Amino acid sequence: MNITDAPHLQLNHILDAITELNKYDTLLLEIGKTSDKLYKELDELPTNKKPYALDGVYTTQEAQELAPFHLFKTGLRRMAVMTDKELNKTFAGGPLAISKMKEQTQAVRQYNQMLETRKMLRHEIGERLRSLLVQMDKLTAEDLDKYGLNDYQFIMIQDITEQLAKDFK
């Protein structure tokens, strides 16, 4: 066994990864709050200012031709368009509303992507913890001497690792 395999060093690396995951969680919360704020701003727009969804993906000119007359009847002088190929929708409305909608859509996509990354990181940490527990079960008294660990330190490392492994199931 290599000294870099020492349980306390492996546990330190895992704890560093958990700290990074916590920072990631904080960023994820901020992006979620931003997305919610933008959604509320869109929702609070008067009905005549809210974007209108058209089924299908269209160019700006096609969207102008297909947009309901009420968009123009309410005083909308300029129209902006946003297409979303994933949803197979085209949104038409005022430039401010479409701008907010684009920001909100981008925030939601970023949030979802980060959520998937977080799940992978959490799973990886759990795997590393379980692997460390398996390695620790195989350690001998000579290994503990080699790593400079006494029985108390070994038991503490094992207890911490077991508790974290339960938390990261």
Could you walk me through the main structural features you see in this protein, from its secondary elements to its overall organization?
The chain is mainly alpha-helical and 169 residues long. 69% of the residues lie in helices and 8% in strands. It has helices at 7-43, 60-66, 69-73, 95-137, 141-147, 151-167, and strands at 52-55, 80-84, 89-93. It has a three-stranded antiparallel β-sheet with strand order 1-3-2, sandwiched between helices. A hairpin with a 4-residue loop joins strand 2 (80-84) and strand 3 (89-93). Helix 1 (7-43) runs antiparallel to helix 4 (95-137) and helix 4 runs antiparallel to helix 6. The longest helix has 43 residues, at 95-137. The two termini are 27 Å apart. The model has no long low-confidence stretch (mean pLDDT 86).
Question: How is this fold's topology laid out?
Answer:
Blueprint: H1 7-43, E1 52-55, H2 60-66, H3 69-73, E2 80-84, E3 89-93, H4 95-137, H5 141-147, H6 151-167
Antiparallel strand pairs: 1-3, 2-3
Helix pairs in contact: 1-4, 4-6
